[in-house]
Amino acid sequence: MSELTMAFARIQGMLLSEQNAATAVDQLAQVARATISTAVGAGASLFDDTGRARSTGATDALTAAADALQYEFGEGPCISAWATSAVVRIDDTAGEIRWPQWCAAAHAQGIRSVLSTPLLHGDRRVGAMKVYAGEPGAFTGEDAAMLGMLAGAVAVLLGCAQPADAPRRLSASVQEALSDRQEVGVAVGVLMERHGTDVQQARAALMAEAVLQDRPLAHVARQTLARPADREG
Question: Cα separation of 58 and 69, whole Å?
């Protein structure tokens, strides 16, 4: 609690520009990792005013990488915490049946436990704050309460730093992003059926084509869906 008090003292009186808010969130992420003793990493995930998911305040490379995988796969505990406005806990990624693709990748990186709580500013969902651990069953109810306190402060900082019309723009952008994700998923399934590959191979082929064309993944997915099977090379 002394570390938490010191963090709030450093933040108090800051002009809440987006840059200063990011600095404050970084400090609170460091506090989360230090306060929750079993955590090996902590951070906050949020959507910017274009609807793109990004991570701010990640305490280490492992946290940043785990977050990036959630954005790439379009699934994971932080995305779900943001989408449902509810606390999400994974006791062991080895046996978790939700978000199977992300959990398998996280487990391969040594992440076994996850605790994620939504960032709520009034009636707005700003993002999610999370901690990762390398041991199963690492987080307790007390840890969830502490993370919730920190998330409340983070949500205020991020919410106050955003432009007034951000919620409207965010809502439209998130709807577009969800539509793009669905098209990518369908395209991956089409490639699996056409070429007899597994999901990883089909996704890799789609991403390789996007890189080759220098176009967004959703654009290439739409091309794939519009292309007859007999023209597929």
Answer: 14
